[in-house]
């Protein structure tokens, strides 16, 4: 069996809002093996970014356990947390907002090294920064450039270099290519792939773009309204989706081909509000297979064998609603 | 459904932005045709000139710094470039209307959605307030929103619903040409599917021609009849959807296809285009794509490629396909 780097158990994150309790993440379970990429997909507001942040303790969890290398990091004190942060890093979505406009590129990349007092020798640190710039493919002449002088693709490379500075084991990629044009997006995806091989990195890859997620992930978790509805390896996810939401989501992707015509499942309505969600299956209102039990009982994420997990009462036995 | 007559013909259109940092050739010698009931996809990356083209057709390019340098935009037999502002005002929102990318910023937040639809109707048709409101409710129903919600404000709707309202406004006067600028980019995939489905149905119902501006080749495959691929202000490939997807010719088009992860196949590595989009004020000499082109020849940096018809109805701007004799 492969070694588990990270395991998340019954993770919850609720926010108090004026209108009530917002269940952003509501009992999420998953694990990530060493060296693998877990894709986390879902539509706006499903809680995927919140999950990524809670896993790093950038947001404090309401409940649950986050086991990283065998230890529950939610029990860590400040000192331990600081040590742990060297191992876990994040690359943000917007390369325009996530870099300090008043710092030069070398300062941005060096910051994690400075904060953690990695080098006592300045020259050594500069050497490391140079090495990192080289790793992500940024020309040395840009050492003293500022973020505004760069295009989106190069900025995202800087964000990646910064995340790599402390030799982490685990990186949360929060929509890292969503703001980029396709030709640049492909360059960054290939770069992240190379880095993963070179440094044995483990990724939690968060995205709303299913084609991208399929391309990068070993396994994929689909989220809907704060819960994981289906989790399996990428192949069986795309070939044989079992949850009605996954089926609809996959059928909705526009495919850049004209030789393949696919059956489309159009969902009615919008994602309901995550504030004070009702009992029962979160997908109830939009599901074409709903039955009475779906409204009363929340389906658990069940093991269907072959590391496939589905949260639906009628997995493998879907019949159109009889109303 | 298709008519031989062209609704819109763009001939040698050039639009430049004259700025302190130099001239940006946003659109260069563009030639496109759209027949009645046809949908043309306009594809390209950031800064390719897609939106400028759309604004050019509506004669809405901000001036200064933008200017239509030359060319004709023949719509229903008349050149829009030569029309006065007051004549254009009668066309915009009436015969040609536009859907913008972000439904949040294209709706007025302090006006009910019903009033926003009725506004266009009152402006272009000889109706009284009650009739306009009735028409607004009718349009809301058409786009799948209960007509009784016409007194609601934009913030009371979700993103997908707002985009439906925008579509209702655009279609309220039965336009013959609809320009949709990234209409589904801001939406989630399941909502995108709903909106695309709606647009397709309404297009059939009204036999509207459409220009669909997008960067998503998946969306193009789904809704368009013809496609024009733009790079740095130039339409570098222009043909029908079938030919573009089965035998793309221009190296940039091939590069675009290599850059998108395909969910139907299992490639382990993408084949991106090397390099970056050129600086718009400093477009490379000759073919603007030559520094990034895997098939670049010596001549590519010296001569601008001409629009070449490689087979009937398939145009490519690339020196690889030009007859170099003469």
From TrEMBL, chain A:
Domain ABC transporter: start-end pairs: 6-250
InterPro entries (UniProt xref): AAA+_ATPase, ABC_transp_ATP-bind, ABC_transporter-like_ATP-bd, Oligopep_ABC_C, P-loop_NTPase
This protein's UniProt keywords: ATP-binding, Nucleotide-binding, Transport
Gene3D superfamilies referenced in this protein's UniProt entry, alphabetically: P-loop containing nucleotide triphosphate hydrolases
Entry keyword Signal: no
Cross-referenced SUPFAM superfamilies: P-loop containing nucleoside triphosphate hydrolases (SSF52540)
Superkingdom field: Bacteria
SMART domains tied to this protein: AAA
GO molecular function: ATP binding
Short name of any one Pfam family annotated for the protein: oligo_HPY
PANTHER family in alphabetical order: ABC TRANSPORTER, ATP-BINDING PROTEIN, TRANSPORT ATP-BINDING PROTEIN
Protein name listed in UniProt: Peptide/nickel transport system ATP-binding protein
Protein source organism: Alkaliphilus hydrothermalis
Automatic annotation (TrEMBL), chain B:
Molecular function as annotated in GO: ATP binding
Domain of life: Bacteria
Location relative to the cell: Cell membrane
Main location: membrane
Residues covered by the ABC transporter domain: 8-257
Topology of the protein relative to the lipid bilayer: Peripheral membrane protein
Protein family membership: Belongs to the ABC transporter superfamily.
PANTHER family: ATPASE AAA-TYPE CORE DOMAIN-CONTAINING PROTEIN, OLIGOPEPTIDE TRANSPORT ATP-BINDING PROTEIN APPD
Protein name from the UniProt record: Peptide/nickel transport system ATP-binding protein
